[in-house]
Amino acid sequence: MSIKGRTRMAVLFCGLLLWAGPVAAAAAADAADALRLVWAADRGQGFDLFTAVQEKNGWGPSTRLVDGPEADITPACTVDQGGRLWLVWIVRDREGRSQLRYRIDALGRKPREGRIVTGFDDNYAPVVLIDREGTGWVAWASYTGSSDDVFASRFDGAGWSAPLRVHAANDQPDVKPFLSLSGDGRVQVTWLGLREGGYQRFQVQWNGTGFLGERVVADKTWEQGMQKHLRRKAPPLPRETRAQGMVTAFLPGNREIQAVPDWVFPLTFSEGR
């Protein structure tokens, strides 16, 4: 069962920091706890990624963050302990292929940017996380030609590891991945899988060599666990984001849960600018 075509433009509340030298570095501490909005929009030149920071009375002016000849959509981002911005998103080319890309920004240096090789042409719903050791993780879903599976990869400082399917092989769709850290700091992937005629929530944990302990997580348990992290206010979203269809919230200052999709944390749209 293909989920092809479900890739949508994403909006991302992100506590990312943009740096442009000493002035930006001095402002980084003040911006560390601020929400930042990142979204995909077509302003007449194809879909690009834009960003705006939360200010006292709403969102500040928007700035183009990623500008390319192809469609840049569904962004997700986080910031590591060293202040580097990690951004992942989908690039859809003219042939209809959806490729996974990343960018790592660092103060005073040229951003590192490239493709994360997945082995498939239909990838969607990327999420990103930084673990307690500072390692970057990405999870996403891919249509493999027969079904949809969830994969993950980690950055070793030189490049991304080979994609690893986080669940057992099956012929049913597995979608909507979510990355978080357990109470003891283990990377865990949660997703929705179609089993026995309905979707169930599954979760695995990284043990250092692979993802193990696949188990079903009750919706009520999941929701209660999320709510303790999601009790914060956000301003209404700009009008431009209303047509995007997917919203993701990054929680600055929270390492266990960093980027939260809208199906976990529904946000309201505004009639604003």
Would you kindly provide a written description of the structure presented here, covering whatever features stand out?
With 273 residues, the chain is mainly beta. The chain has one domain. The chain contains two helices and 19 strands. Strands 1, 2, 3, 4, 5, 18 and 19 form a seven-stranded mixed sheet that branches. A hairpin with a 2-residue loop joins strand 3 (47-55) and strand 4 (58-59). The longest helix has 12 residues, at 219-230.
Can you tell me the overall shape?
A: globular
Q: Report Rg.
A: 18 Å
Kindly report the oligomeric state of this protein. Answer: single chain
The overall number of domains is 1
- Which parts are unreliable, with pLDDT below 50 for 5 consecutive residues or more? 1-10, 15-32, 267-273
Order of helices and strands: EHEEEEEEEEEEEEEEEEHEE
Structural class by sheet pairing and helices: mainly beta
Helix content: under 10%
Major sheet description: 7 strands, mixed
How many helical elements?
Answer: 2
Mean of residue pLDDT? 79
Quote the beta fraction: 35-45%
Distance between the termini: 39 Å
β-strand number: 19
Topology:
Elements: E1 10-13, H1 22-31, E2 36-42, E3 47-55, E4 58-59, E5 63-66, E6 71-79, E7 85-92, E8 98-105, E9 112-116, E10 123-130, E11 136-143, E12 148-154, E13 164-165, E14 174-181, E15 187-195, E16 198-206, E17 211-216, H2 219-230, E18 246-250, E19 259-261
Parallel strand pairs: 1-18
Antiparallel strand pairs: 1-2, 2-3, 3-4, 3-5, 6-7, 7-8, 8-9, 10-11, 11-12, 12-13, 14-15, 15-16, 16-17, 18-19
